[in-house]
Amino acid sequence: MSYIRIRKHYVHLPYLFLGIVEWLLHAAAVYGLASLMQPEASELLGLAPIGVGSLVFYASIMSCCTLSMGVYDALVNEGFSSMVLRSLVSFFLLGSLAFTLFAFVFNGLVPEQKQLFWTIIASFLSVLVVRVLFVSVFDAKRISRKVLIFGAGEKAKTLIEAAEKEHIQGIELAGCVTASKGQIHVPESALVEYPEDWPSYLKENRISEIVVAQDERRRSEGGEFPLPEFLKAKLEGRDVTEVVTFFEREFNRIELPMLTTSWMIYSDGFKASRTRDWGKRIFDLVVSLSLAVLLLPFVIPTIIAIFLETGRPILYHQTRVGKNGKSFRIYKFRSMRQDAEKGGKAVWAQKNDSRVTRVGAFIRNTRLDELPQLYNVIRGDMSFVGPRPERPEFVEELKEKIPYYDVRHTVKPGLMGWAQLKYPYGASVEDAKNKLQYDLYYTKNHSFLMDLLIMIQTVEVVLLGKGVH
């Protein structure tokens, strides 16, 4: 098994292992420099002994900074240079900024300035070495899990294309087996001859998992669904996984074309919880009120800049659809011209939209335009984390064209969401369909831990201006 579920969210074990090792390296860096060095060297560098609380605090902050810049994804998908650049930003920019801010609240936990400088350098160098070793081992085929796809239709084709495009880590596709003589949609090179002896075939080819990706599960001219063989494979320790669940686990989304109502009913998600709702509400109030105070210095300059460029109104409001389809009024700092929607007709935002002002482009890139939405969170219309709320005009259109679209309205909309992290800005029905796959994943599996993860990773979205039109 190459994954683990933590509060219903799938986490790949190699990444979890790497994260734990790096946390220990951070702790070792701050402890080693402050306590284990020779007294003369410690005095020369201006270091002082450090307590356990400071050690844990430092290691946790540095690990959060790593997550916030998407370093682990860059490590595997973008190459070594991108990983180094993101690490530099996460350690020396975000780390320094975080410790500076926390010094006003938790001054006793933040290492001294000289000590912090040398410790961050030690952390940076040590984790670079570990990451290079990690990639060299993790890319080795000897630790990859071989997966056999049962089916050769549209579902199997979609899975193969997604695996090639999005590069599944730690997974090697062994090919497609089909008992049907019907239509074949996968490449001929991906087809594997139907095994006469399933136990021997699985053992000889080191198959760790079978993904059932048939378009139709019924008897065909080529034979029956090998239920006894799959049961035996599972009893021997191999995973037998339905294709929707495989997509959920490996891609952190629910593949919409394959989704069925029965899968949703029998799955272990999509459950309401009053305790969780109350806990989330308290968390929303604490975070939104704290941010409202912290970000207040940015509000006045934003108001002045909007007024000087295009005058009033400063605030812009729209009707959006919230939990259980209830409409509410959302507030933003105005980033478009006053006549952006002539006649009041809703228009999809486009890339490089000409209606966006110069000030508007800046506050959109920095997400300052969304600061007034903290009021919506305090009111209870929105949560801090959840699917982004959409306009009623678009919702009616999307409900007609996209199945299960209304399911996203069973949780409160949010300032930030899983779909924002995983998919660029949506400006069409097709974009809305792709984003819904991530919104459904969040709706099914959301938890306090996942909300924290989304908040941390949203830092990358803000800094890099992702998903802004």
Which SSEs are present, and which pair or pack?
Blueprint: E1 3-6, E2 9-12, H1 13-36, H2 39-45, H3 52-68, H4 71-77, H5 80-102, H6 113-138, E3 145-150, H7 154-166, E4 171-177, H8 198-204, E5 207-212, H9 227-235, E6 239-242, H10 243-251, H11 261-266, H12 274-294, H13 296-310, E7 315-321, E8 327-333, H14 358-365, H15 373-379, E9 383-385, H16 392-401, E10 414-416, H17 418-422, H18 429-445, H19 448-464
Parallel strand pairs: 3-4, 3-5, 5-6, 9-10
Antiparallel strand pairs: 1-2, 7-8
Helix pairs in contact: 1-3, 1-6, 3-5, 3-19, 4-5, 5-6, 12-15, 13-14
Would you mind describing this structure in some detail?
By secondary structure, this protein is α/β, with parallel strands linked by helices. The chain has 19 helices and ten strands. It folds into three domains: 3-138, no CATH class; 141-251, Rossmann fold (3-Layer(aba) Sandwich); 274-464, no CATH class. Helix content is 53%, strand content 11%. It has a four-stranded parallel sheet with strand order 4-3-5-6. It has a two-stranded antiparallel sheet with strand order 1-2. A two-stranded antiparallel ribbon has the order 7-8. A hairpin with a 5-residue loop joins strand 7 and strand 8. The longest helix is centred in the first third of the chain and has 26 residues, at 113-138. Mean pLDDT is 84; it is low at 44-48. It is a multi-pass membrane protein. Its EC number is 2.7.8.6.
